[in-house]
UniProtKB/TrEMBL annotation:
This is Uncharacterized protein LOC107798777. It comes from the Eukaryota. The lineage of its organism: Eukaryota, Viridiplantae, Streptophyta, Embryophyta, Tracheophyta.
């Protein structure tokens, strides 16, 4: 049976988040080591600067309503902030086993809007991100606080401080059920079939896609610019070719009167040599002169 959860008010939400949503649990990180061998490690992300500020940061979204700006750092900060909401036992209780039954979604969205100037169209993405972080949170808890110990008595003793005892008891009961054991076995087998995992760290796929689009746009702009220069050069070269052809025809007319068929042959010779003029113009002119002399 799920325990009853209360929805926090807006006034107490910020204070509650700062106190219990990101408590550093060194025991969770070092519990398998002896007291003499314990090392101080970096704790969980707290994002106290975000929870404590009053101004709202602007969030820019793409056509799929996914955050992409104004900078990568702001988007990464938003993602870390949403993780802290998912770890909060009041906003995202662990004794609710189906995200569709979570009744605090509007509170999550309202609090996110207090800290970020984010479009309403990004609401679905925001809640999906919190849901994914909430699922990862429960997965980590199961690995380090359920699978790591033999019985529930030890598990309760090793419970993380930021997890309410009542919620953790319900969670242990759920994990011990036959229904969950069957589902867990199926999920493990499905997970083994995953070939391409997320390997870009805090950078979202939306950011990666946006960077690729910007890079492609830059390359296309450069390509169009260079193409315009090339076309301009070709137009200039074509004009130069026409002038050279006129000069050679004038030479032809000055040398000697030719029959009509020989004039046509000389013109054909000029047209045949035209594609090679840009390679060696002076050499082609000498060759044309030799060819014209043979016709005369």
């Amino acid at each position: 049976m799920q325990s009853e959860t209360t929805t926090p008010t807006t006034d107490s939400l910020e204070e509650q988040l700062q106190l219990n949503s990101t408590t550093v649990d060194e025991q969770e990180q070092c519990e398998q080591q002896g007291d003499s061998a314990r090392k101080r490690k970096r704790g969980k992300t707290k994002m106290l600067s975000v929870h404590g500020r009053c101004e709202r940061k602007l969030i820019i979204v793409n056509e799929n309503n996914q955050p992409i700006g104004p900078t990568k750092d702001v988007v990464a900060e938003l993602g870390s902030f949403l993780v802290t909401l998912a770890r909060n036992a009041s906003l995202c209780p662990l004794d609710i086993f189906d995200w569709r039954k979570m009744d605090t979604k509007e509170d999550l969205w309202a609090y996110t809007k207090e800290k970020y100037d984010i479009p309403d169209t990004a609401k679905k993405w925001t809640l999906d991100a919190i849901q994914a972080a909430w699922r990862r949170q429960k997965s980590n808890l199961k690995e380090h606080h359920f699978d790591a110990y033999a019985n529930d008595e030890i598990r309760m003793q090793k419970r993380s401080e930021y997890i309410p005892a009542s919620q953790f008891k319900d969670l242990l009961k759920y994990w011990n059920s036959e229904k969950f054991q069957r589902m867990s076995k199926t999920n493990i087998e499905n997970r083994k079939q995953l070939k391409n995992s997320h390997t870009v760290g805090k950078k979202s796929f939306a950011i990666v896609r946006n960077e690729l689009v910007e890079k492609r746009r830059t390359l296309l702009t450069r390509y169009h610019y260079e193409s315009s220069l090339w076309l301009q050069d070709q137009e200039n070269l074509e004009g130069h070719r026409r002038i050279l052809m006129k000069i050679q025809l004038v030479k032809l007319l000055k040398w000697k009167k030719l029959k009509h068929n020989k004039v046509k042959m000389a013109a054909a010779l000029l047209m045949h040599l035209q594609p090679f003029w840009d390679l060696n113009i002076q050499g082609d002119l000498d060759y044309m002169d030799e060819g014209l002399q043979e016709l005369l």
